């Protein structure tokens, strides 16, 4: 109801504060379901579930680094170059871990290897 602005002002403000996190969690849920359903492997005793749990932390870390572009302490804003390099590093490592997750889902790693990747 808060998305339709038919709730109390407190709930509307609360929803505005957690909107990005909510959208990220729902999209990660849908992505994980698609990964499980479209893969030909049976996911018993593998590290794909651990990987997707870790990927959620990476997504929220990326959101935090993107917020550095608008971060201010007093009247001084965070340096844009530093924020750019942090964001670039964070996104590139996220894509690398996503690539490894796809390789695990395709069955290119056995059980022991998938736990250590």
From TrEMBL:
Keywords, comma-separated and alphabetical: Membrane, Transmembrane, Transmembrane helix
Entry keyword annotation includes Membrane: yes
Bilayer-spanning residue ranges: 20-38, 50-70, 82-102
Top-level taxon of origin: Bacteria
Protein name as annotated: GtrA family protein
């Amino acid at each position: 109801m808060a998305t339709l602005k038919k709730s109390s002002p407190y709930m509307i403000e609360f929803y505005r504060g957690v909107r990005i996190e909510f959208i990220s969690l729902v999209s990660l849920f849908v992505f994980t379901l698609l990964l499980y359903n479209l893969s030909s492997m049976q996911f018993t005793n593998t590290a794909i579930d651990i990987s997707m749990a870790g990927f959620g932390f990476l997504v929220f870390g990326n959101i935090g680094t993107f917020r550095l572009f608008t971060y201010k302490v007093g009247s001084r804003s965070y340096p844009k170059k530093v924020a750019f390099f942090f964001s670039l590093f964070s996104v590139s490592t996220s894509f690398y871990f996503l690539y490894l997750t796809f390789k695990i889902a395709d069955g290119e790693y056995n059980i022991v290897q998938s736990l250590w990747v």
